[in-house]
Amino acid sequence: MRIVIAEDDALLREGLALLLRAEALDVVATAADAGGFLEAIDAHKPDVAIVDVRMPPTHTDEGIVAAVEARRRQPGLAVLVLSAYVEQAFATELLAHGSSGLGYMLKERVGRVEEFLSALHRVADGGTAIDPDVVAQLLVRIRPDTQLDRLSPRERDVLALMAEGLGNTAIAERLFVTDGAVHKHIRNIFAKLELAPTDRADRRVTAVLHYLEDANRRL
Questions:
Q1: CA–CA dist 36, 42 (Å, integer)
Q2: Residues 8 and 99 in one domain
Q3: Where are the alpha helices (DSSP H) in the chain?
Q4: The domain containing residue 77 runs over which residues?
Q5: What is the C-alpha to C-alpha distance for residues 169 and 130, in angstroms, rounded to an integer?
Q6: Are residues 49 and 106 in the same domain?
Q7: How far is CA 32 from the centre of its chain?
Q8: What is the pLDDT of residues 45-87, one digit of tens each?
Q9: Count of domains in the chain?
Q10: Which of 69, 214, 216, 62 is nearest to 151 (CA)?
Q11: Residue 18, burial from CB neighbour count under 10 angstroms (0-12, 13-18, 19+)
């Protein structure tokens, strides 16, 4: 796995590089700003990019903008975005451009090495990884007059784990239920959110985006 890291905090940037290299992963370049990150993407054609949300010069959304641009330049590039805080608007913006091979994690998760590496590998394999704290805050902020109020508590649990990027088997293991029960809950979620099967949309991703966007509108 070839990785580019974009992080303006030198200590975290080098710490990430050391951690990943210790796991026998190939960190081909690091960058301290969005411009340097995009140059590294063009030069090295990595498999995965790890990108800070807030980068110079304004420390607002340069990382998100650069991540979207990097995916435009290199379709299929996996991107794991790191943020110091829960910022639902940025998570929504990132996922709105497609969910395959995308992750949004809090920086504090890096210290939980197994969780961080699991999210990184999931994203590299084309999956989605959304930080559990982001999911939890979104669920708390949603008002009861939305479609999501139709979901049972267990269906909300399943949707939260779907948002983290877990598959049916992993959800079943986390909730101590059968795969069949998870499949039934997901089918109910799709029905209650009025998500009909189509050839153009992934209903799992649409369900997650449904409450990401709803929470974002209410901020």
A1: 10
A2: yes
A3: 10-22, 34-44, 62-73, 88-95, 113-124, 132-141, 153-163, 168-175, 179-192, 203-217
A4: 2-130
A5: 17
A6: yes
A7: 21
A8: 999 999 998 888 888 888 888 988 999 999 889 999 898 876 6
A9: 2
A10: 214
A11: exposed
